[in-house]
Amino acid sequence: MKVSEITSFLEQFAPLGLQEAYDNSGLHIGHGSQNVSKALITLDVTDEVVKEAVENECNMIVAHHPLIFNSLKKINTKSGIGAIIAKLIKEDIALYAIHTNLDNIAEGVNAKLAETLGLQKLQILAPKSGTLHKLVVFCPVSHVENVQQAMFDAGAGNIGNYNSCSFNSAGYGTFKAQEGADPFVGEIDKLHKEEELKIEVVLPSYLTQQVVAAMIQVHPYEEVAYDIYPLSNEQKNTGAGMIGELDIESDPEDFLQMVKRKLNASCIRHSSFIKRKIKKVAICGGSGSFLIHNAYKANADVFITGDVKYHDFFEHAGEMTIVDAGHFETEQFTKELLYDRLNGKFPNFALQISKARTNPIYFL
Fold this sequence. Notes:
Radius of gyration: 25 Å
Number of strands: 15
Distance between the termini: 45 Å
Low-confidence stretches: none
Number of helices: 11
Structural class: alpha/beta
């Protein structure tokens, strides 16, 4: 198995283009052609995790949180991140991080948390906008199907639960080939009029170059006329947080006791209970305070996340209960998510979930 086989699969599942601007997901250490016989899956990369990888002969680590997050100006190999980097390189262990891009997909971190808490009717809490492009290309009628299919195969034309979506309008194009041209139709220095279809498809912005290249490869014209437009539409299956419903309404205190038990949390912090039963639940694994207002606007009875600040607990008092169940606690199931995905794709590849405790927070 090559590192590139694993990373390519992970990036199809959670494209790097969906990570937040501040993030640093991707291959931190190693190279695509590196051979891998066994991979260790972890939430964080610590000295203990690296030691575990070495002892179990894992030559790749797949982590949720990036080891290299902020810019590095120096690498001190005696302690901290520098020492971990040095150890990984010395032991020839590749390191891959899959962070906010895994947070931002419909089948990612929050879906696993929702499954653990028994939520149904799931939707993205804060869908991303500004992440879509529209590609418009003009094509002779004889080649429309080939051009459409090439764009679909490259990732264009997906809207919600529908694929192969396009709009096509008929018209004609005019052009006059000059000396040195090799026209598909028409003659040199003669104005030509050709029946064409205008094909419009929507695509994720991070796939634009890939889709355009695939389209040009099968398009018959020597010079292909096409336009790319940025869209403000929301991408409903991509974004932060998730909201769903319980099958049966629950008393607020009973519900939080269930949350504490399911997440194996030593304690949970919360704002005042609402004076109604819990039905609609919003969640965000990790640090999700920025979604408090989104949860309220979505009529959530409770919002569960980690790293909630003191003043955040005052928000929407009496109308929505805010729960801090812990950063680690709300993301811990990411290891099982990654294991299941990789094992489903590569059933004969050796995978191991890290047993190291990487939660840096302790409770008395």
